[in-house]
């Protein structure tokens, strides 16, 4: 019945093998770069189409010498002006490891382990708030930052974390006001493929390095963030760049030719890392769009060290796609080939207020691993704000940049009919877990 199941699951497994990793590296690699493990230590918006007249105009040839000099001068000016806003981040995470065999040799069965790491960040305001990746600071018990051309080390604390977005906001203590150099934030919604991109950070611990390239693609959807503290999170739209990004660059800024931050460098694809476990740049890096961070900034600033959760509308959905089911099964249970079948709706939630309906009958999907229950007979969400959705991650990604009071327009299939519902997000949709 589910002849497509195994084939698609194998394909999905292959994709996950390509895209799963911790650190900035192969496969899809994020950092904070591990330094030591010591024992017993304390989319882009649609671009306007050129009209036929403009398309027929001959391109003006570039003066290669002059354009090179102009580009070099632009890079030099941006580096000199904004690199002082970049910070070098080092972390240490203490944990207790149980080793029963240690007693046989006169040691303690419980040993302290300190995992050290490093990454990058940048100032976003005059108060000294530093934006970085969540995976750079994680659950670190010690966070320290160092500034450009300054050997002094400052202790830092976490103001707010957003694991699902792979973002965190930290603040260093006792930094002189004149050393706080915020970098202006740009508008990632206006990016165009081919425009200049400048990456700043600390690749492989070589602090305050600069690389250049272009925006290779916008709205590149890949898994970013963590659903839990140690789990991979949501598919999100990212900026793809060929500016060299390596372990240690995570959390550093990606700038445009005006010196404004357009993204936060977070992950790369590195074929070598799949074999060796050590990632290196392969010309395909990804940055979280700065507009995502801007939408979260006030929530991070008010999190009190807690965790900022993605917006919720109060629905549950299966962990697989309808396209993985056989056509026969879908036809029998009146399911479309694409869309997200709603399993349940929380009472008094935005989804319930909008009239969204969950399934009313449970059927079992046979698989080699055992039967998987699926509730049918409810609404199937097919589009959100005119964008197709096929998994719960698509719904979550569509809500990432929303704020309380915002609405989303959902197209649902109910029975054999299609209709639109408007879901309004409330304050209860935006949760912060205090620690």
UniProtKB/TrEMBL annotation:
Compositionally biased tracts (Low complexity): 41-58
An individual GO BP term: proteolysis
Keyword Isomerase (UniProt): no
Domain PDZ: 282-416
Keywords: Hydrolase, Protease
Chain residue ranges for the region called Disordered: 37-58
Protein name: Trypsin-like serine protease with C-terminal PDZ domain protein
């Amino acid at each position: 019945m589910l002849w497509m199941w195994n084939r698609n699951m194998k394909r999905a497994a292959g994709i996950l093998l390509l895209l799963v990793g911790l650190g900035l590296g192969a496969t899809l690699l994020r950092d904070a770069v591990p330094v030591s493990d010591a024992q017993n230590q304390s989319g882009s918006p649609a671009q306007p189409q050129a009209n036929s007249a403009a398309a027929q105009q001959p391109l003006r040839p570039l003066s290669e010498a002059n354009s090179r000099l102009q580009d070099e001068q632009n890079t030099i000016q941006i580096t000199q002006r904004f690199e002082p806003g970049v910070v070098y981040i080092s972390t240490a995470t203490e944990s207790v490891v149980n080793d029963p065999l240690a007693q046989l040799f006169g040691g303690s069965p419980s040993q302290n382990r300190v995992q050290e790491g490093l990454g990058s960040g940048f100032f976003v305001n005059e108060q000294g708030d530093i934006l970085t990746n969540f995976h750079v600071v994680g659950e670190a018990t010690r966070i320290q930052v160092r500034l450009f051309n300054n050997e002094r080390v400052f202790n830092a604390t976490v103001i707010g974390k957003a694991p699902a977005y792979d973002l965190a906001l930290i603040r260093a203590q006792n930094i002189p006001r004149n050393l706080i150099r915020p970098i202006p934030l740009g508008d990632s919604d206006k990016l165009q493929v081919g425009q200049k991109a400048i990456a700043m950070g600390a690749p492989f611990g070589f602090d305050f390095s600069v690389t250049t390239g272009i925006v290779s693609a916008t709205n590149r959807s890949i898994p970013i963030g963590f659903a839990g503290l140690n789990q991979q999170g949501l598919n999100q739209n990212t900026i793809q760049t060929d500016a060299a990004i390596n372990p240690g660059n995570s959390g550093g800024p990606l700038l445009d030719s005006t010196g404004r931050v357009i993204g936060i460098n977070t992950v790369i694809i590195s074929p070598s890392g799949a074999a060796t476990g050590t990632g290196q740049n392969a010309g395909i890096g990804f940055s979280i769009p700065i507009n995502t961070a801007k939408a979260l900034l006030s929530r991070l600033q008010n999190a009190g060290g807690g965790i900022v959760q993605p917006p919720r509308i109060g629905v549950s959905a299966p962990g697989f796609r309808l396209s993985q089911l056989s056509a026969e099964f879908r036809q029998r249970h009146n399911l479309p080939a694409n869309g997200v079948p709603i399993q349940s709706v929380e009472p008094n939630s935005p989804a319930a207020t909008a009239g969204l309906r969950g399934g009313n009958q449970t059927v079992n999907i046979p698989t080699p691993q055992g039967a998987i229950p699926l509730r049918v007979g409810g609404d199937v969400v097919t589009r959100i704000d005119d964008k197709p959705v096929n998994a719960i991650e698509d719904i979550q990604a569509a809500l990432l940049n929303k704020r309380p009071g915002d609405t989303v327009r959902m197209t649902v299939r109910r029975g054999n009919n299609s209709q639109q519902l408007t879901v309004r997000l409330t304050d209860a949709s935006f949760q912060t877990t205090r620690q």
